[in-house]
Every structure is written in C-alpha cells, then in structure tokens.
Amino acid sequence: MSQPATWPPGPQQTIPLGINEATLDALRQVSDAFGDIAHIPQPNDRHAVLVSDPALIRQVLVRKHGQYRKGRGFERVKMLLGNGLIVSDGDTWRRSRTMIQPAFKPRLIHRLTAHMRECAHRRIARWAAVADAGELLNVTRETSDFALELILISIFGNDVDPQTAVAEDGLFAFLAPHAARDLEMVKRVRELRAWILALIERRRSQPSDDDDFLNAYLAATDKNGEPFSDKQLLDEMITLIVAGFETSANTLNWMWYLVAGHADVERGLLEEIARVRDGEAASDSDAATAMRYTQYVLEETLRLYPPVWLFTRQALAGEVLGDFAIAEGTDIYLSPYLVHRDTRHWSKPAAFDPARFERETGSGAPAAFFPFSLGPRRCIGEYFSFLEMKMHILTLLPQFSLRRISDAEPACEYAINLRAQGDIYLKPERRETSS
C-alpha cells in the first residue's frame, strides 16, 4: 500500500506491551478511552494497534488472515513447542494443518470417548474419599490431571501409562500448572523430546494399528505424498500435548468454580444429564453431543475465562483497518478477555449467564466471541475439547456437588494461557441420588 499510515486515535506516550497483567490493564484503559481501534506507540519506533471491534477482528483473523503472521510473544512458546502448528506460519503451517486435519474429524474423535469416560471415572474414588473425609478438593489439580491423562493416552495409546506419567516424578509432570517453571523445566523438555523421538522411531519400524493421534500423524502425507519428518512430527506431538490439555484443564477448573456458586446452573446441568441419559442416545458420545445447555455453560465459562486472553498478529504489508491505514510490521493486539467482557457487545458481561448463548443468538453477541480464535487458525482441537469436557461433566456432576469455601473470586495469572493464580479448592459432597 503506497499511502502513509494514518493511525487510529490513541495515547501519545509509549506504552510497552507484553503478555502480562500490566499489558491487560494498559489495553483495558486504551479500549475504554479510545474505542474499538486504537494506536499504541511502542519502544524503538514500533507501532501497535488494539482492535476490539468484532467486524475488524474477523477481518484480521478470517477475511484477510493471509495478510498477517503470528505476532509478538510467540518466541517463548516456540522455545517449548518448536515449530508446531500453533507457532508456525506460511507454507509450513498450511502444509501441517492440511496433513493434521483428518485426524480431528468428529467420527474419529468419537472413538476416543471410552478413554474420556475412563479418565473421568478415575476421579470418582478420589473425590469420594475427599468428600467422606470432609476435606477440600484441589479442583485445579484434578482437572489438570484428568486432561493431561486423557491427551497422553489419546496421543500415545498403549505406549504410555498416563497415571504414572503425570505423577510428581513422571515424564510429563512438569506440564501441570502446579509444576515449577524454572531451569529444571528445560531439562524435562529435553528428556520428553528424546522419549517421543525414540517412540516415533519405534513406531516407524514397528507399526501398530492403534487408534491414536501419533499413528494418525505418522500416516499423514502432504499433497506430494511426503510424510512429516521426525523433527516436524516431534514438534507437532509436543504442540498437541500442551495445547491438547491446557485449554480443557483450565476451562473445567473455572467451570467447577462458577457452577459451585450458581445453584440454578447446576440444576440445569443435572436436568439435562437426566434427559440425555433417559433419552434415545445410543452412546456416551451421542449423549454428550445432545447436551446443548452444557455447551452453553462451557461457552459462558470460555467467555469469562478464555484460555488465551490475548492474540497477536503482525501486518505483512500495509493494510486498511476500518478508516485507518496500518503500516507494514504493525503489531495487532486482539483480546478475547476484554471483548468478551465489553458492555458494547454483551448485556451484563460480568454475570455468569449460560442462557445468553441461546437467548442472544442472532443478536450480534456471538460475533464478539472468539475463545478459540477464528478463521483458518481456529483451534483444530475444539471439537475434541468440548467432547471431553462434556464427558467429564456427564460422569462427575451426577456424583458430586462442589461448593465454594470463600466469596473471594480467584485471581488470574495473565501469562500466555489464562490460569487461576493459585489452585482452586472446593468442598465436595456426595449426591444422595448417586449410585
């Protein structure tokens, strides 16, 4: 684009931006002061633009996604994940996405329903023991262990014992939210990569017919019939492990906290579970698919606590956003957390109200909802995540009621993923009607 940049209104002073709570505070103040699109001067003569208008967000993520690449903040992610699907760009990303997509078809995901049920059912005995002892349940740890166990068995099948692997001295324990983020983590990542690489080599030489993601990725080929290299496959496996459990673990953690404070929502969930169990559902996966109100509860949880609270993009060339010309190299900031809580797009946005997703359908509100991103880079595992979370709820909610022990809202940790700053503890009680 030949014309010079015509920046949107915004603060005159430089405001350094990162992936932290200070950045969230700064972006909130800018959005409140300047509206749906604002220019934020950056150090070293760089420029950032905060976009909060749903139509412009869709322009960046959907209609003109090819005009942007992954933005600032992904360097740290790349150190852990390598050049997997989340961080790659351009032809590398397009090739990987096309090769991986068939593994996430719903009919293939439904084959994993038994694993979802088993991982959820393993929680029952421990939750019952905690309830009987009158103790508190560490919900953060329970949801993390559930989701991590599930993704490991879904990826590696019989080659891993997920319960052993997520134990405190296990190979994958460093991924859990309670694990320390220090130099020891670097060592653990190297050990994990070596273990996965050895498994890849063994699977190549001794193929199996297991229905797991590793086999699906091993069988994938590009348009020229070429498979992933070992290095590419290793990066994608690491990416799938991390992305495949963090979103579900965090969402379930917040969901239990929210439902514990809203008896009406809990009743709605229990009534729906009773209906799908007494209905015509031929399988657990059919029952989970039929759980519409549960879907709304999860979506409302994701609205309030999106797994990634900030997406960043960088303009590859000059671009027009709304009434403004954006220069090449401009950093674009898109915050689901802020947009999801904006009174311009949602009625009573601070309230936990799952019914809004049915009541407000067609009103424009869903356009302001993008917890899994949008467009071609929308999370490939979204269907898997919703199905596993529904199976978790379907299995555990009829057995247990969880209650809050404090009126204080848990603080958030605004890192790459939006987590609770400390573990969430709730008081479990067995239901009298449970069998």
Fill in the keyword field for this structure:
alpha+beta, three-stranded antiparallel sheet, 435 residues, globular, 11% strand, five-stranded mixed sheet, 17 helices
* Rg calculated over all Cα atoms: 22 Å
Q: Work out the helicity level.
A: 40-55%
The portion of residues forming beta strands comes to 5-15%
Q: Strand order, main sheet: write it out.
A: 1-2-8-5-3
Largest sheet, described in full?
A: 5 strands, mixed
Mean pLDDT over the residues: 90
Tell me the structural class: alpha+beta
Query: How would you describe the shape?
Result: globular
Oligomer: single chain
**Residue ranges: pLDDT <50 for 5 or more in a row?**
none
Distance between the termini: 67 Å
Strand tally, please? 12
**DSSP helix count?**
17
Secondary-structure element order, as H and E? HEEHEHHHHEHHHHHHHHEEEEHHHEEEE
What does this structure look like?
By secondary structure, the protein is an alpha+beta fold. 48% of the residues lie in helices and 11% in strands. The chain is built from 17 helices and twelve strands. It has helices spanning 21-34, 54-63, 74-81, 90-100, 106-109, 113-132, 139-156, 162-165, 183-205, 213-219, 230-260, 263-278, 284-289, 292-304, 336-340, 356-359, 382-396, and strands spanning 37-42, 46-51, 68-70, 137-138, 311-315, 319-321, 324-326, 331-334, 400-403, 412-414, 418-420, 425-430. It has a five-stranded mixed β-sheet. A three-stranded antiparallel β-sheet has the order 4-12-9. Strands 6-7 form a two-stranded antiparallel sheet. Helix 7 runs antiparallel to helix 11 (230-260). The longest helix has 31 residues, at 230-260. It is globular, with a radius of gyration of 22 Å. The N and C termini lie far apart (67 Å). The mean pLDDT is 90.
